[in-house]
Amino acid sequence: MPPAPISPIKVGHIDDVQELRKTKPRTIPQRFVRDMTERPTLTTPVSPPHTHMPVIDFSLLTKGNKEELLNQLFILATACEEWGFFQVINHEVDLNLLESMENLSSEFFMLPLEEKQKYPMAPGTVQGYGQAFVFSEDQKLDWCNMFALGIEPHYVRNPNLWPKRPERFSETVEVYSREIRKLCYDLLKYIALGLGLKGDAFKKMFGVAVQAIRMNYYPPCSRPDLVLGLSPHSDGSALTVLQQAKGGPVGLQILKDNTWVPVQPIPNALVINIGDTIEVLSNGKYRSVEHRAVAHEEQERLSIVTFFAPSYEVELGPMPEFVDENYPCKYRRYNHGEYSKHYVTNKLQGKKTLDFAKIQTRNTS
């Protein structure tokens, strides 16, 4: 992952939300209480069918006949253009592996605090156990505990942060990450085809892709109307793959048409979203979308997230296929490593980090 900041960051005291829930179940420290404008609305009317997130049947992409393939490519392209999110069913990742990853992640979060604190997430970094994206003593905190690891290439790993407990955790992460990596490459192939590119366009461009995994644990919260599980943000990746643990409450919300829309999990499906990288490469044709997580009064929630992005050495910018006189260039060329460093050294704040790459246009009227 990008290097740690040189100067020390003062983040003040950060309560561990699981411990807070155990010892003071009714207490919400002020650092978790959001300003009125940020607080979630937890009662959402039933959405009409046309507002449901698109669903891709991966088996029809890989094994379907020509008509089925073209139909799925159309759904995928529409999902990327209009939603930035979609769910994938029949994704060929072993369901027993998903269950093992879920169970071991849950076991990790249930370990005693002193055991988890052997793998601390240092302020300003994004690996280890704790809270990421905290940079000041007065910053509002998310109602969430995180555990994150760099996966690929191997030099991004910090071996000291790979836990000894639970047993088989590390080896399961390895196998799981290999399977998700394969899925990402396959999805990028079909996303490229939907954009009218050659299927290997992104794979060739990305070099040795960077991959990281993060587990998020959201304990119940006595006042979910005051807090956020995870602040609104878009992802700096090319693709993000989300596994939502079975039996948990609806927690993920995406910003669609200026409304926060809850994502209803489909059993055994994976949720995929477009990251900032694909937005830049497609010159805004496909857009990364803000999303957030909310807490629940009575139920815990667990999610496992994989981030998949180009090599840090790669230079990125809008591809020539998406730039012409009707669609002028919206983003400058930049080094992906520099963007990654910029992303992880700023707090989560909507799509603000993408300003790094935007070409600022002057208003001449």
Automatic annotation (TrEMBL):
Q: The Fe2OG dioxygenase domain covers which part of the protein?
A: 208-310
**Pfam families for this protein:** 2OG-FeII_Oxy, DIOX_N
What Gene3D superfamilies would the database entry show?
Answer: B-lactam Antibiotic, Isopenicillin N Synthase, Chain
Enumerate the InterPro entries for this protein: DIOX_N (IPR026992), IPNS-like_FE2OG_OXY (IPR044861), IPNS-like_sf (IPR027443), Oxoglu/Fe-dep_dioxygenase_dom (IPR005123), Plant_2OG-oxidoreductases (IPR050295)
Entry keyword Glycoprotein: no
Q: Which GO terms describe its molecular function?
A: L-ascorbic acid binding; metal ion binding; oxidoreductase activity
Which top-level group of life is the source organism from? Answer: Eukaryota
Alphabetically ordered keywords of this record: Iron, Metal-binding, Oxidoreductase, Vitamin C
Q: Does the keyword Nucleus apply?
A: no
Give the family per the record.
Answer: Belongs to the iron/ascorbate-dependent oxidoreductase family.
> What's the name of the protein?
Fe2OG dioxygenase domain-containing protein
What taxonomic ancestry is recorded?
Answer: Eukaryota, Viridiplantae, Streptophyta, Embryophyta, Tracheophyta
